[in-house]
Fold this sequence. Notes:
There is one protein chain. The chain has 444 residues and is an alpha/beta fold. The chain has three domains: 7-159, 3-Layer(aba) Sandwich (Rossmann fold), CATH 3.40.50.2300; 189-296; 298-442, Histidine kinase-like ATPase, C-terminal domain (Heat Shock Protein 90). It has ten helices and 15 strands. The protein has a five-stranded mixed β-sheet with strand order 10-12-13-15-14. It has a four-stranded mixed β-sheet with strand order 1-4-5-6, with helices on both faces. Strands 2-3 form a two-stranded parallel sheet. Helix 3 packs parallel to helix 4 (100-108) and helix 8 packs across helix 9 (340-357). It is rod-shaped and about 150 Å long. The relative contact order is 0.05.
Amino acid sequence: MNYFEYSIVYLEGxxxxxxxxxxxxxxxxxxxxxxxxxxxxxxLIISDVHRKIDERKPDLIITDIxxxxxxxxxxxxxxxxxxxxxxxxxxxxxxxxxPHDVIKGLASGADNFVTKPFEEENLLARIEYLINDRDKPRxxxxxxxxxxxxxxxxxxxxxDRRQIFNLxxxxxxxxxxxxxxxxxxxxxxxxxxxxxxxxxxxxxxxxVKLEAAYQDLELNTVELETxxxxxxxxxxxxxxxLRQPLNIISLHRQAIEIIxxxxxGEGKKIVHEIANQTLKMCDTISSLLDLSKLKHSKPESEKVxxxxxxxxxxxxxxxxxxxxxxxxxxEDGLTVIGDSKLLRIALENLVGNAWKYSSKREETLIAFGKxxxxxxxxxxxxxxGEGFEPxxxxxxxxPFERLxxxxxxxxxxxxxxxxxxxxxxxxxxxxxxxxxGATFFFTL
Length: 444
């Protein structure tokens, strides 16, 4: 911050002083009840300075280095050139960032330095010291002017020994304070380094723990993948091997009907039930095999007309129950890029579920269309069927998880849909309300 005012301290009567100041100096000086404050002129002209000093008869002058029109050194020099004012002690406020400042201070006739930022206690002590020191005898045993050269610059020094002593004493004191600040900063830095080293050790320990945990996770992942492959292989083998005995049971059931059909009587119901359960078992096995194959199959990339597929599925469902009142609302022209066979399986399951779980309605409404969700094209299958509790929506896509036991099924259909959609890089979710219906959304 630059201060464009100068400061003059007066002693009047019982150690009362009036001060011309830079703003932070005012704050420090006015804390003492011995001092009163007068605002200096806004423009600094040496004739005005001489007139003000001559009017007020100050006991001490405080000036900043940065001044309008001239710097503090020049101001101090101009004041000291006047025989009337040369014995008034002068303090220069400076950061002492340049060694030349000390020499310039001597050349200007300054009596003391106060470094910025200054400590209030130190500033008041300097003021008191110089005011008390001003009437002490001066030693004039040095030449009137001493010419010195420092770093290629020449200076003319006219200060007496006491001024030189006071100036260098204040310089030493400033250096002492700076050194103390450096020591404090060094101690703080040492403490920070100690904390940093402790933090680094903690971080290293944490990294070791994380690395161990990561290795455990990798090992668990490998074991889990191995177990999943073994389970899938086992499921595929079991499903495949079950088909042959089921086919044999189905053939024997047909032979019994052909050979002993007329003699079965009420036993025909049992034979028919065997046929139904065998067929259901075969469907379950087929679904398991399809689900297992999806894990390792890569979807084809072709243009697929979803609207056309849903239209075909709706006609097939209507043929199974021609007397049922069902309205299909199918948006035309919905095409995507994907695997037509896999997407047909997904839509068969979604539309088939909508058909199944709305069967108790006097009039069923099933809709297929497109909307936008998070700026992505999103497709949906909606029905006005039984619906489901919203909190149970996450269970819908788990294998063998069935929310309703009133309808036939093996609990694999939606798991298959989930895997197909995931294979296409998409996402599927459901919304529902009991007694209102359900909507399944998916992206591709």
